[in-house]
Amino acid sequence: MKNVEFWDGKINLLYFLEALMAAIFPSEKWLKGLENKLNSDSRYNEIAKNWEGDLLFLIEPDGNLKERLTFYLDLWHGRCRRVDYQPEAAAYPNPTFTLTASYKDITSILTGKLNPMTAMMTSKLKVKGSMGYMMRNVPTVLDFVRVAQEVTTEIL
Questions:
Q1: Could you tell me if 32 and 150 are in contact, meaning their C-beta atoms sit under 8 angstroms apart?
Q2: Sequence-ordered list of residues with C-beta below 8 angstroms from that of 71, at least 6 positions apart, any chain
Q3: Domain that holds residue 118
Q4: Across 6-19, average pLDDT
């Protein structure tokens, strides 16, 4: 296999290309890719520098998703401190925000077919938490979605 110079050593080219490619949504690899992108995206880091709050997503079965999907992100001052794929909702009893959507609606947001703010206002994306805080931080919300869209190249 062909090797390429990378930082201070060599890395297998196929491994390098695989690491660059986004994973299929939903998967733990996708969520880890989102965490890495949130932490390395300077635009998001700047826009979200005042954000303080964790998110618990509850995705209801629909279409290709046969069981409820849960994932958790701890977002703090432009960084993602932690992610958790498929936790029990009880593991995070008091997240700042709990977001609930059907699989169809969350994938429509991730593919850009549904505006996240429209989804919230029409209850396609239900938000439990301070809507005032969410509305005061619309640029952060929209840039979070931008990053999530960028890491989503394929949907189950």
A1: no
A2: 26, 31, 56, 57, 59, 83, 84, 85, 86, 87
A3: 22-155
A4: 48
Count of the separate structural domains present in the chain: 1
CATH number, position 139:
3.30.1050.10
Write down the pTM of the prediction.
0.85
- Would you say residue 5 lies in a domain? no
The pLDDT assigned to 7 comes to 47
